Amino acid sequence: MNIESLEYFKKIAEIKSISKVANKSHISQPALSQQMQKLEDSLGQKLFVRSNRGVKLTQAGELVLKYADNIIRTYDKMLIGLEEQQKSEIKIEADFTIATYCLPCALLKMQDRFPTHNYNLISGSSDEIEGDVFNDICEIGFITRPSNEEDLASQHVIKEKVVLISPKGYDISKKLYLEEVFNHPLIILKDECIIKENFHLALNDLGYNIDDLNIIARMETTEAIKTLVQKGYGLAFVPYNAVKEEYLDKELQVSTIKDYNLDYNVFMITKKYEKLNSTIREFVEGFNKMGKRICC
C-alpha cells in the first residue's frame, strides 16, 4: 500500500466513480483500476463493488475510508515537518513593541551566529502569544510577563526602558516627577499595552486616573505617536529602543521620571527545556549568552 493509492481510493469513495477520478487526475482508467486492485491485494480485502452505475464501498472499504483521511493528513504533516526541519525554521511571536524595535536586530545577530536558522517573526499580544506557544503554533514567544502555564518555561531576557519624549526644543526638564507631566498635552496608544498598564498603576497611586490628563490623541501605533510628537503636538511615553535613533540624531528630546519606574521586563517563553528540539535549544542558549547586547 502507498499513499498515492490511498489518496485515489479516497477520491473514488467520495465521487463513487473510477472513470471520473481518472479523468480529473489525468490518469488512464485501466491504470487507476490496476492501482485499486493492488491496494485491495495488499490489504487482502475487496474495497469496492463495481457496477454500471459506478462503485460502492464494501464494509472493508468503509473501514479503510474511516482511517484514510487521517493517514493522508498525517503523512502530509510529516512532509511539512521534514521540510521545516531541513530549513530549521523557528516560528517566533513577540509583543508588538518588542517585535518592532528589539527583535529585528537581535534576530540578525542570531542569524549570523546560526546561519542554518530561518526565523519567522510575527507580532501579537502577550495573551495570544502565550496560547500559541502552549498550542505549538509557534516555538518561542517574547512577552511582557512570565507565563503562568506549568508546561511553559519563562526566562527574563531584557529590561525595556520607558522614556517621555517631547519635540525638539520643547521646554521640559530631563528628569521630572510624574505629576509634572499632567499639565502637558499627551499622546497615548489606543489599545492596552504594558506601558499603559504601568502608567495607570502610577496614576492610581497618586490618586488620579487617565481622564484627569490632557490626552489629545489615542493612536494605533508607536510610529504614529512618534510622528505627532516630532511635529510638536504633544508628549508621549514610549520604549527607549523605539526612539533611540531619533534621540541620538537630536530629532526628539528624552526625559525620565524620578518618582515612578515605568520600565518593563521582557520574557522569552518556550515549552519546557526537555521538550525542545536541538534547533530551539540552540536558539535559546545563544540568545541567553548574548544577554543585553542582543538588541541594537
Tell me what the structure shows.
This protein has helices at 3-15, 18-25, 29-43, 59-87, 96-113, 126-134, 194-205, 222-230, 240-248, 278-290; strands at 48-51, 54-57, 89-95, 118-124, 140-143, 152-160, 162-167, 175-176, 186-189, 215-219, 236-239, 252-257, 264-271. It is an alpha/beta fold and 296 residues long. The strands form 4 sheets. It has a 5-stranded mixed β-sheet with strand order 4-3-5-13-6, sandwiched between helices. Strands 8-12-7-11 form a 4-stranded mixed β-sheet, covered by helices on one side. Strand 1 and strand 2 (54-57) form a beta hairpin.
Provide a concise account of the structure shown.
With 296 residues, the protein is an alpha/beta fold.
Descriptors for this entry?
296 residues; alpha/beta; four-stranded mixed beta sheet
- Most strands sheet: 5 strands, mixed
Strand order of the largest sheet: 4-3-5-13-6
| Anisotropy-based shape | elongated
Rg calculated over all Cα atoms: 29 Å
Give the helix/strand class.
alpha/beta
Determine the number of helices (DSSP H or I, runs of at least 4 residues).
Answer: 10
State the end-to-end CA separation.
55 Å
Strand percent estimate: 15-25%
The total beta strand count reads 13
| Mean pLDDT, all residues | 90
